[in-house]
Every structure is written in C-alpha cells, then in structure tokens.
Amino acid sequence: MKRLLLRNADGADPGGSWSRDPGGIQATEADRSQIARTGLRLFLGVVSSLFFLFLIAFIARSQMADWLPLTDPLAPLANLWQLWLNSAFLVLSCIALQCSRMAARQARLDATVIGFALGGVFAIAFLVGQLWVWQQFVAWGYFVASNPANSFFYLLTGLHGLHLLGGLIAWSIIGAKFLRRVPLAQLSVSVELCTTYWHYLLGLWFVLFALLASTPQTYEVIARFCGLR
Questions:
Q1: What's the domain range around 204?
Q2: Which part of the chain is the Heme-copper oxidase subunit III family profile domain (predicted)?
C-alpha cells in the first residue's frame, strides 16, 4: 500500500520504474488552449477599445466645417461597389475558415487544409482590393492631408488592414505546420482561434463600412446621440 501511495503521489515507482501520466499531458494541453483563448479575448478587447476611440473621434471631427463628405455625388464613395466587392472577399474568407474549423473538429484533415488555405487566399484578395481602393483615392486627388474625411478613411481602413495582415502572419505560421504534417489534433485550437479572429475582423469591417459610407446627416444624428453636439 505504501508503495502504491508513493507511485500515485510522485508519478514514479520506488523501484525505479516511471509511470507516465497521459491524463496530466492532456490537462496541460487543455490549460494551454484555455490560456490562448483568454489571451485572444483580451487582445480583441484592447482592439475594440482602440477602434471605439477612433470612431468617436471620427464622429466628433465630422461636425466641423472643414469636413468634406466622401459620399458626395462626385466623391470616391458615391459608388460603393469596390468596397462591396472587398467585403465579399472577407465574407468568403470567414466562411472558408469556419468550414475549416468544423472539419478540424471532425478530424477531417483534407477539408481542414483546403478551407484554411482558401480562407487565407480570400483574405489576401481583400487586402489587395483595399489597396486598389486607396489607389483610386490617390488617382482622384483624395490624399491623406487633403481633407479630414480622407485622413480618417485611410486611418481606419489602414488599421483594419494591419490587423488582418497580422492575422495572415499567424495564418502562414499555422499553414507551415500543416506542411510539416503536424498532427491535426495539435492544430485544431490554432485553427479555431484564427477563425474567431477572422469573424471579429469581419464584424469590425462592417461597422467601419457602415460608418464610412454614411451621410453627414447620419453623423449628425450619432453626434447628438453621443452628446458631441
């Protein structure tokens, strides 16, 4: 009995044989997964606070006389088809990653890899499309310092693009692990967190899109609601 108690307490047999503890290893992996999820939630909270402050500054600045709306008939955002196209790319990216996450839960490696790869490809297409919109702004003479509305457009879309670019760096690291044939069980949590991040960026993008495409009258209503007028 004493020998058994020592083995249970220390994980080792007093006679020299070592008793492995698969349950302990699984517990460690679960702890790491929980830490990763908590870390992502904290990071998204910080990002949300950052964008909230910028959006409040956007609304406050839009109430000043030198604000020239980008949604005027001859302004770049009078026709939103380019931004809608980019939005479609980001939606497809999130759908592909969601399919990858579901496939990972079912231990379907091929479907996981295909969905994960398509998610990154569509995200890259979104970023290329955003750069295309920026080029259109420059071609029309809407430079960063030309108008406060221009500055906020570049700032908000640029910050969102940088966060997506950071996600693509993580995506490429996970993709490299797939190429090295790391077991799917070790990557399922990474795929899940990557998908969650993409969904967050999609929701954030639609908030930015709705605000950037709004009229000065909408800005005034929001400003009054927030007590900025």
A1: 80-229
A2: 37-217
